[in-house]
Amino acid sequence: NINPQRLWDSLMETAKFGGTAKGGIRRLTLSDEDKQVRDWFKAQCEAIGCTVSIDEIGNMFARRPGRDNGLPPIAMGSHLDTQPTGGKFDGVLGVLGALEAMRTLHEQGYETNAPVEIVNWTNEEGSRFAPAMLASGVFAGAFTAQYANERTDRDGKSFGEELERIGYRGEEKVGAHKFGAMFELHIEQGPILEDEKKMIGVVTGVQGMRWYEVTVTGQDAHTGATPMYLRKNALVGAARIIEAVDAIGHRHQPGVATVGLIENKPNSRNVVPGEVFFTIDLRHPDEQALDAMEKEFRAALEVTLPPMKLAYEEKLIWNSPAVKFAPELIACVRHGAETAGYAMREMVSGAGHDAAYIARVAPTTMIFVPCEGGLSHNEAESTSFDECAAGAQVLLNAVIEHDRR
Amino acid sequence: NINPQRLWDSLMETAKFGGTAKGGIRRLTLSDEDKQVRDWFKAQCEAIGCTVSIDEIGNMFARRPGRDNGLPPIAMGSHLDTQPTGGKFDGVLGVLGALEAMRTLHEQGYETNAPVEIVNWTNEEGSRFAPAMLASGVFAGAFTAQYANERTDRDGKSFGEELERIGYRGEEKVGAHKFGAMFELHIEQGPILEDEKKMIGVVTGVQGMRWYEVTVTGQDAHTGATPMYLRKNALVGAARIIEAVDAIGHRHQPGVATVGLIENKPNSRNVVPGEVFFTIDLRHPDEQALDAMEKEFRAALEVTLPPMKLAYEEKLIWNSPAVKFAPELIACVRHGAETAGYAMREMVSGAGHDAAYIARVAPTTMIFVPCEGGLSHNEAESTSFDECAAGAQVLLNAVIEHDRR
Ligand SMILES: NC(=O)NCCC(=O)O
Ligand SMILES: NC(=O)NCCC(=O)O
Q: Residue ranges of the Peptidase M20 dimerisation domain (chains A, B) (predicted)?
């Protein structure tokens, strides 16, 4: 059995790297805070005899040998980066829960058949560098390493430069590790488990998601001296699209549609805005429904903006199709939750996860635990001591079960 | 007669302090670029024998003595600060046109009865530190010097700190100068003069303007895992208000209504926005119409946001009532334009100007010249060689006429 207090202490200890006044974490990928938590993680893994290797885009692998090291390793992992105002559990629980499982194997001297690895995937959040799940995507062949290196943040700094700056560009070729399986523990980030009082979410897949970027161009002008009928106000145009996107989400439930980021230029109180950049996030478990949402979004641009004398550019920058996880691994999670006596339910993930890409190259699945009010990507994100412990225990049980089978 | 080439050369020379790739100027008040243009201006005034004094909030006064130095000085002036993506003429023409008038007096050895002064007012734009016309407002008793010093920009730096940093806090008490009159030359910043092919706008007043700040608060949440019906999306709420404000402007023409600045938090592609800050600028020549616009704006907040489970705070941060200029000075401008043979028309300014505050403490008026397409607060802002010359000539004529009377 895992040690719940040790897991909790590690969660609270690492929460200090980028800890915010409101009890959350700001640990953007490849920032100084990301380096701090990576250093800590490496030291902890080495302290229990694991060998840590790093690939060319900063993915970290901590390996504990098995009885037969010719077998492909069983991986457990998630990510240590966070949103700009993120919580203490999103991603972190999956890595530290894996660390706790590994510490338990080590302490007990339990010998697995296959080697076991903990993985920390780079830039899962996609908040600093879009898209999300970037480095697991490269690992799975969805993107090239060059593509990852060339992503830039909103200040123009590149992934590649920042990776080198914090000293986490490794030697290993991306994707050189071949997993026998991967299990990712994560908080649900939605309200269902809490609502239904279930401790464990048995995750059968991930919904499809598409990201877009839009730039609306009008004309900077004086707010006092420019009559209403002469304006080309890019922000009013963007406002109409923001509303249209929200309406698309409402029409296509359980799909969701969001504008999360907006940059207004020149952003001055007495200037009619001349240019607005914003992003769109559309998701649905059903790819055909996603197609329909995309069509409606594009129609909204075309119907709304030109009559306002506004030009626009629109680009699909990311398309992550719906994913189904491996039945034999799902069975291991069910077995692990049963053994530990937890109530569970099957569910499809609304959030994207590294597991969604890894499923392309290895049998993969996920384990969810509840979070208070379904709240995530929020500094108030909260998962209890018992819920964290339950997740790590089921993770360990599932790994052992898979290894035994 | 003024020297049009010398005026143009000075305009182009100072356009380098903060010059942008697109031919505009970025010279935010109290920035390094503002210091550069101030240093240049001081040197030029001293080169023609003027004495330059600076008051406690950075207003600069360049004085040329008259025959009777007991008489209150006749002031000519405007501002050298610009918008973040401003043009080469807004404000600058008023200061350099005055410099050209002064150079002409000097060159001709023309002796005025009263002393004549050129003024450069600090922070007219209000873009870095709100509100606009801040230092002329202190000069006229609308604000205290302490209020000005405590204004902060969006990065939290204060007016007082920044004034000291660039070395332009003077010794003189604000308002110690008592003007006999002030004339402000400016580009129109709107389309009327160009439309009607008039060279000179005889400005009879300035419309009323009110600035507000709004913060809308919802809840940060995951864009993928948060169902539409559970969201408290602050950006969708803000978008509705942006549209409502635009509609208020359209309903109350010739009034105008604008959201110019917006800050979205946490501004991440996969986070439902939890907090949005934005500003509103309402203007109308008629104070009663402004009252009605304000009422409709407040009603829009109340009707729109609470049903979306969004909280908000709203604050009127600036109220600059409609202003009427001094008839005896307006007559001098008419006379000056007639003498020079320019077509003119009377008009009310849509933009705010330092003259609007100075009118509270001295007889004041303004002279407008056209700008291409009525475009201002835009890097493409353009006023021709001849138009700049015409403005400076009428300014000089009006000052001499006033001095003569
Ligand atoms: N789990 C998680 O928050 N991932 C970020 C990627 C996304 O779903 O937007
Ligand atoms: N003239 C000018 O652009 N002033 C800025 C103040 C305002 O009207 O917003």
A: 205-307
Contact between A272 and B260 using a beta-carbon 8 Å cutoff: yes
Query: How close B261 gets to chain A, by Cα (Å)?
Result: 4
The alpha helices in B109-203, defined as continuous H runs, are 134-139, 145-150, 159-165, 192-195
Contact B266 A83 (CB under 8 A): yes
pLDDT at residue B396, as a whole number = 98
> Angle B234-251/A234-251 helices, nearest 10 degrees?
130
> If you search the block for the tokens 């002036």, which residue do you land on?
B77
Measure the CA–CA gap between B1 and A81, rounded to whole angstroms: 68
Q: Is B224 on the interface with A (CB under 8 A)?
A: yes
State yes or no: cis peptide before B72, omega within 30 of 0: no
**B392 close to B9: Cβ distance less than 8 angstroms:** no
Closest residue to atom 6 of ligand 1, CA basis? A352
Ligand 1 center to A332 CA (angstroms): 24
If you average pLDDT over every residue of chain A, what do you get?
98
What does the CA dihedral B327, B329, B333, B334 come to, rounded to 10 degrees?
30
Alpha carbon nearest to ligand 2 atom 6, residue? B352
Sign for the pseudo-dihedral over CA of B372, B373, B374, B379: negative
Taking only the tens place, the pLDDT of each residue in A311-325 is: 999 999 999 999 999
Whether pLDDT at B177 is above 90: no
Interface touch B226/A260, C-beta < 8 Å = no
Q: Is A162 helix (H, G, I), strand (E, B) or coil?
A: helix
- Is there a contact between A118 and A161 (Cβ–Cβ < 8 Å)? no
Q: What does the alpha-carbon distance between residue A214 and residue A202 come to, in Å, rounded to a whole number?
A: 36
Chain B residue numbers touching A352 (CB-CB < 8 A): 224, 270
The verdict on pTM exceeding 0.85 is: yes
The answer to whether A114 touches A71, Cβ cutoff 8 Å, is yes
Which helix or strand (DSSP H or E) is residue A258 part of?
strand A256-258
End-to-end CA distance of chain B: 20
Tell me the residue length of chain B: 405
Phi, psi of A310 (to 5 degrees): -110, 135
Which letter does DSSP use for residue A173 in this model? P
DSSP states of A365-386: EEEEE--GGG--SSTT----HH
